[in-house]
Amino acid sequence: MAVADDIKVLVDWNNDGDYLDANDDVTGDALSLSWERGRDYASALLGESIAGRLSLVLLNSTGLYSPSNSSGALYGNLKPGRTIRVAVTSGTFPYTFPFVFDDAPQWEGQIERIVPSPSAAAVNTCKVEAFGVLGYLNQFQVQLASQTNRATGAAIGDILDDVGWTASDDRSLDTGQTTIPRFWISGAKTIDALRSVEEAEAGFVREGKDSKIIFEDRYYRLTTTTSTTSQATFSDASGATNPYMAIEEVDPLAAVLNHIEASATTYATPAVAVLWTLPESGAASPKLAPGQTKIYEAQYPNTSSGNNASEVDTWTTPASTTDYTANTAADGTGTDRTASVSVSVTKKAERMAISLQNTHPDDIYITKLQARGQAAETNTKVIVRAIDTTSQTVFGDRKYESKTPFHPSAELAQDWCDYHLSVYSDPVQIIGMTFDADSGSNLTQVLNREISERITLVATGDAGLGISADFFIESVQHTIVPGNHTVRWELSPASTGYSKFWLLGTGVLGTSTVPAY
User: Which of 51, 54, 259, 340 is most buried, judging by how many CB atoms fall within 10 Å of its CB?
Assistant: First the structure.
């Protein structure tokens, strides 16, 4: 494969947590390789971080990579979910010490599908497709208990904990500049849950090269050295240290916004009350055989709730006789067996799972079951907006509505709208840059640069664009075929977005900056 001395492709086929077993290194069979990470559009507001993707074509002349080949050395291990890594080898030194023992990763994720392509007339191949950690985590739904005064970084951590991404070395989370007064998630897909917090913070949730989940708060690009100082200059000048093959200006009108809305909601927490009741009673009372366990889910809001019902601040652990009773007769006329019911609960924001076990040697009936708690009820929602009529005259009405329910207050929601209007009411210059990874010292930059880092782009020569400015890397795409390794970065201007915040004692307010919030 091209640049085999610099790049390895490794697969943990037997799922033992390393890439050290026979056939784990598939580099020698790789015919082509591509991978990508980052935003789907190079805008801090309109662009969303997507699950990384990888596509790999392997030489499969012996059937080694065919899942149905029972005589193959990898038979039984060619399964979805196996970890795959693109890594820097230790054969060259374009990166800094210390080295990672099993090679420094450039991309890591899980295999989604393995598709052999046999051919009678040509070469047998196999295509492997994989997705990044965000794609893996998005297989799960998030169910969180209600919390108050939760910093956005902690809220991101809560989501990751709930879907099992718990290890500290699997994440790198800023604390965040926003505190959410009431935070809960009920039944949302992982990426949707993460984005609801990301938008409230005006931050960025993304995949790292090593499959970490990274959360950048809105001050990240103001305070991180690699974001405040240009790390390299890419130029169209003859003999440039870091030349590029092509650049293009992405349609700037798509990012123009001149009507921005957001909403904020406050909550009331009335006294503890009955929030849910099991509707089956009397002759319909559910039976528990000896030793049997049944689980009932109390849900709030439900059809009996008021229109302002939101979620549950605190569920009350069920108390015998008050919240549940049991009897040897379905209608309650037999012997009381409430003391023979073992109860355990799992509490979430809108649900409480109630597990009931019959510890008596005879059948019993659950003649009463209810769930109490302190509800959270919504007060009137406040909608705020920021509008630039001058921009509307030129570009028409271009509206964006914030989707997150977690803006802390109407005042901060207004600040959020005002800031984004100041950035996006005029066209924002977004650039796509493609370069040869093996040209000049580009490979050093390919292997060391990361999303959100700052680079300088010069296009004042043959490109004829008159650009000489700093940009942030927003997405990364690699394509490797025999004899060629090309890279495309999508770039957003460092003069806009969250680098435009003005902090006390920094910058010139009103010249190239606006007040932070």
Answer: 54
Contact 182, 155 (CB under 8 A): no
Say if residue 243 is exposed, middle or buried (CB neighbours under 10 Å; 0-12, 13-18, 19+): middle
Fold of 268-378: Deoxyuridine 5'-Triphosphate Nucleotidohydrolase; Chain A (2.70.40)
Which token pair is 391? 């921009």
The residue among 118 and 364 whose pLDDT is bigger is 364
Q: What is the pLDDT of residues 187-229, one digit of tens each?
A: 999 999 999 999 999 999 999 999 999 999 999 999 999 999 9
Using CB atoms within 10 Å of the CB of residue 473, give its burial: 0 to 12 exposed, 13 to 18 middle, 19+ buried.
Answer: buried
Helix (H, G, I), strand (E, B) or coil at 511: coil
Average pLDDT, the chain: 90
Q: In whole angstroms, what is the distance from residue 366 CA to residue 376 CA?
A: 29
Sequential DSSP letters for 312-341 = EEEEPPP-BTTTEEEESSTTS-S-B-GGGE
Q: Is the pLDDT of residue 92 over 60?
A: no
**pLDDT tens digits, one per residue of 413-448:** 999 999 999 999 999 889 999 999 988 899 889 889
Query: Whole-angstrom Cα distance, residue 181 to residue 443?
Result: 46
Q: Report whether 432 contacts 244 (CB < 8 A).
A: no
Phi/psi for 47 (5° steps) reads: -85, 140
Q: Where are the beta strands (DSSP E) in 217-363?
A: 233-235, 246-250, 259-264, 267-268, 273-277, 287-288, 293-299, 309-315, 324-327, 341-347, 351-358
Q: Which residues pair with 427 in a beta bridge?
A: none
Measured CA to CA, the distance from residue 58 to residue 54 in angstroms comes to 13
Which H or E element spans position 110?
Answer: strand 104-117
What angle do the packed helices 190-201 and 152-162 form, to 10 degrees?
A: 180
The CATH fold assigned to 132-218 is Phage tail protein beta-alpha-beta fold (3.55.50)
Tokens 């393995």 found at? 114
CATH class of 7-131: mainly beta
Burial 300-327 (b: 16+ CB within 10 A, else e): bbeeeeeeebbbbbebbebeeeebbbbb
pTM of the shown model: 0.89
* Domain spans in the chain, listed from the N-terminal domain onward: 7-131, 132-218, 259-266+380-424, 268-378
Q: Collapse the DSSP code of 213 into the 3-class scheme (helix H, G, I; strand E, B; otherwise coil) and give the result.
A: strand
